[in-house]
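[Automated response] Your request has been received and processed.

Submitted sequence:
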Amino acid sequence: MYDGAGIRDPFATLRVRVKELASSALVSTVAGEFRDELMNPCGIAALAEAGFLGMCLPPHYGGGGQDYRALAVLCEELGRVDTAHQITVTVHLALVALAILQWGTEEQRDRWLPQLASGDRFATFALTEPGTGSDVGALIASAKRDGDGWILNGEKAWISHADLADTVLVFATGDPSLRHRGITAFLVDTGTPGLTSTRYRGKLGIRAGSTGSLVMQDVRVGPDALLGREGEGFAVALAALGNGLYTVGAGAVGVAQAALDATVAMLRDDSIVGSPGPPPEWLAARLSVMASGVERARLLINQAGDLKNRGQPSARETSLAKWQAAEIASESCLAALEVRDTLGLPADQTIERMLANVKGSVIFGGTREIHTGMQGAYALGYRIERPFRCPAPTASDLAGL
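Generated structure:
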């Protein structure tokens, strides 16, 4: 299959599958869900039924065995529908399931991955705290030794699907004075006594997705809950966030493409712009900037995906891709809104919804200020990517080869 420019698209079939799922189970209810702050009750189940919740896990764990480029296509197409659906894949698959594949013992993989791949269990990622966001080393949720296990206490904030998840990847510290070196990662069943959740209301964006807090009050977990080694949680988080940034960036490409599509549709409607033919020069210029931005962001995502597929260092490229994709998506939504208002069209809330949602993409995994600082440090050679003890799975690993 080929794209509109006549270039062979190796993921054309996947794009069609995602679009078919979107049209049958996701698109028609998005506007109302955003307005009323309701999740699509069939959304997660539909993604699971299609195999998308485990598409990058190896087949012997029940996954689809597809690579990181395919994961980006999935998230881009879901981002075109609504960022809430892309976030579902990000937290469940990119942040948690792939972290278990990379850092888990074989027993943990056998226990968790088949259930996550099938959607029998849904997972989320709990790192952020009420007073701790980008400075991960400042987290204060505690993990105290108790026999052969741990007792967890603390609160996690702005957790996607906190009230829906069956499994949570939680980060806590054994000694706050050690900062990053004191953090440990745990896999916690949400039915564990002492773990409770709340749901936030009144968000600006991603209103069609659930976000809330998790409170841990003397939550006891056993030794089998430890993901990675004790004190290795910061490395686990960094590796997981690399996958999270990648999928957030891909979702932002989808938002930018949706904004571009909406703008093109307005300018091709003769009943809106008048006589057929090219739009005014300033509109054509605005459209060309949007189109080039979308392609630039997609190429950056593809570059990061190619590196991840080969098992090569990709933190710099992933940071750059997410930062640029989110910025381009935000600018494209603003441009689409400007074009619509200039043409005097009535509001239909679609562009406003995308603009509100994309603010989350700008913030998730580090704001623009974080990523500009990181890119400057990479350029100067002050920031160097170091290999993890457990290497990230390659495309061959994901395929089970």
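Summary generated for your ticket: Residues 124-231 form a domain with the Butyryl-CoA Dehydrogenase, subunit A; domain 2 fold (CATH 2.40.110.10). Residues 25 and 43 are 7 Å apart (CA to CA).
If you did not submit this request, please reply to this message.
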